[in-house]
Amino acid sequence: MKEIVVISGKGGTGKTSVMASFSYLGQADLVIADCDVDAADLHMLLDPDYQNSEDYYSGELAILDQEKCINCGACLDVCQFDGVQKENGIFRIEEMNCEGCGYCQRVCPTAAIHMETQKVGQWYSSNSKVGSTMVHAKMGVGAENSGRLVAQVKNEARRIAKAEGKEIILIDGSPGIGCAVTSTLSGADYVVFVTEPSVSGIHDLKRVSELVQGFSIPSGCIINKYDLNPQRVLELEAFMEDAGIEHIANIPYDEGFTAAMLEGKTLVEYENSSVSQILVESWKKIKQFAKV
């Protein structure tokens, strides 16, 4: 079983559209894991049915019992995050500021504060329209510990892939180099970068490729919208060669991506064009590079 991760150094490169097309091409041969849990959007193109769902709990929040509180201010004195606030002589917990450290609970002389584990999101296992199982999730607004939720999604995808005898887990990662991306890369066999020929595209590809190199994972790159800036393409190709990144394909700018997305379709199912054929050939290369 191989884990193939599709990521980008920044948003807006077309990663989700490319990832969805690969999901359509792989169909029932794979399990799909959407690990972009902070801003999930793959579901808009793969139409999962949310067959199974579970609440996800992580982190703690201080809860203040006003009936036990004697307004001594001990909690306010020790809180370093403005999680405890005083209004009109009454103490309260500001939920958005609370870091869940529990210090206020430990110093409260009347046990007026206790800690509760928080529901910060949900994760799902679904049947997708392409015929494969999809594991995906959604973090709550302002919630933390997305890296742990990513690990939950990946572990469930692995369990399903093993039970169904699938040879590929295709994983959509979030942009950037944060903890969610680090969690996504753990255990991966091959990484596909989707980038664009812009100053920020080159800069962020370099950052995320350094992270991948730290995991010693082989990788390849797709340059999307390559025809918009030929000079930057040369810079990207030179960097990729120096960094040992396989050059998978150059995809020209194509309004078909947007048209397909508006109809809730991947490009390869929306039209049989030269660009869709590039995606077909790219998927074949990726499987070869990942030794599937």
Strands, helices and their partners?
Elements: E1 2-7, H1 15-26, E2 30-34, H2 43-46, E3 52-64, H3 74-78, E4 84-87, E5 90-93, H4 103-107, E6 113-127, E7 133-139, H5 146-164, E8 168-172, H6 179-185, E9 190-195, H7 199-214, E10 219-224, H8 230-243, E11 246-251, H9 256-262, H10 267-270, H11 274-289
Helix pairs in contact: 5-6, 7-8
Which key features would you list for this structure?
single chain; 292 residues; alpha/beta; Rossmann fold; Alpha-Beta Plaits; 2 domains; two-stranded antiparallel sheet; 11 helices; 11 strands; 37% helix; elongated
Strand content: 25-35%
Instruction: Please give the order of strands in the largest beta sheet.
Output: 3-6-7-2-8-1-9-10-11
Which percent bin holds the helix content?
A: 25-40%
User: What is the count of DSSP helices, taking H or I runs of 4+ residues?
Assistant: 11
CATH architecture label of the largest domain: 3-Layer(aba) Sandwich
- How many domains would you count in the coordinates? 2
CATH superfamily of the largest domain: P-loop containing nucleotide triphosphate hydrolases
CATH class of the largest domain: Alpha Beta
Beta-strand segment tally: 11
Largest sheet: 9 strands, mixed
Distance between the termini: 8 Å
**Structural class assignment:** alpha/beta
N-to-C series of helices and strands: EHEHEHEEHEEHEHEHEHEHHH
- What overall form do the CA principal axes indicate? elongated
Mean pLDDT: 93
Please tell me about this protein's structure.
- The protein is an alpha/beta fold.
- The chain has two domains: 2-47 and 128-289, P-loop containing nucleotide triphosphate hydrolases (Rossmann fold, 3-Layer(aba) Sandwich); 59-119, Alpha-Beta Plaits, CATH 3.30.70.
- 37% of the residues lie in helices and 26% in strands.
- The chain has a nine-stranded mixed β-sheet with strand order 3-6-7-2-8-1-9-10-11, sandwiched between helices. A two-stranded antiparallel ribbon has the order 4-5.
- Strand 6 and strand 7 form a beta hairpin.
- The chain is elongated and about 70 Å long.
- The protein starts with a strand and ends with a helix.
